[in-house]
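Interim report to the steering committee. The following record documents the input for HMG176 (176 residues).
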Amino acid sequence: MKSFLVIALLAVTAAASVITHEAPEPAADVLPESSETQELQVADADEVPMSEMAVFITKVLLADEEMPFVAPRSGMSLGNIGASDRLLSASTHSRNPIANQVQTVNVRYTGSSSIIILAVRAYGSGQGATARVVEGYLGRNSITIQLQSARGRGFHYRIEIWGRQVFLEKVVSWLD
C-alpha cells in the first residue's frame, strides 16, 4: 500500500509540473547600452595546424591566373574534366607505415608540347596523408604532385591526370 501511495504521489507531482506545452515567448534581442560587440576572430590557415583542418585552401596557377581550390585531406581535385578530354596518365602509389617517419613521394608528369593538363585527381585512403601540387600547374604540359604521409603512417593514392591535345585545335582554328 505504501508503494502505491509513493507512485501516486510521484504521478501527481509530475502531472502538476506540466502546465502547458507552449513554448515561452522569445526575449527581445536587445543589448544593454553598456555592452560591447565583438567581431568574430577566425584563425588564418597558417595559424591552424594541418592535422586539425579537414579542408585546406591553397592557390594554383591556371594559365597565368590565380585560382583557389579546396582539397580534402585525403585527396585532391583540380580543374574540370570535359567531354573531349582524355586520361593522360593513371598511376597508383602506396607506402607502408614506418614508425615515426614522414614519407614523401613526388609524382611528375611531363607530356609532349602539344598536350595541356586540364585536370588532376588524387584519390587517396591515407590516414592523414596529403596530396598537393609543388611544381607546374594546369594549362601547361608538366606537373609535379607531392604525396606526403602523416608521421608514422602510410598512404595509398591513385593519381589521374587529364588533358587535351591542342595542336590539332590550333590548326583547325587557323584554317577557319
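Residues 95 and 141 are 27 Å apart (CA to CA). The committee is asked to note this result when reviewing the revised timeline.
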